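REQUEST FORM: STRUCTURE PREDICTION
Request ID: SP-0412
Submitted by: Lab K.M.
Chain count: 1
Length (residues): 69
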Amino acid sequence: MTTLRRTVSTAQDLLLLALPHGGQLTARRNAWAGMSDAATRARGRRDADIAMDQAVTCAQYAGQAQRAQ
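STATUS: Completed
RESULT:
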């Protein structure tokens, strides 16, 4: 599947470069893909940050509960 996707993508790139304005379309597609990847990574970092904050808060409460006993 990955090999087929690469082959199709390469064929599209070559076709777009041969057509008028093809380079601009390729640049736009690459920019959009880069933006999407960056947004996905940012969402992952946010989710990891929230999870870490929750884990720290939970550990702090557990420590306070142990000391209270």
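NOTES: The chain has one domain: 2-68.
Reviewed by: T.R.
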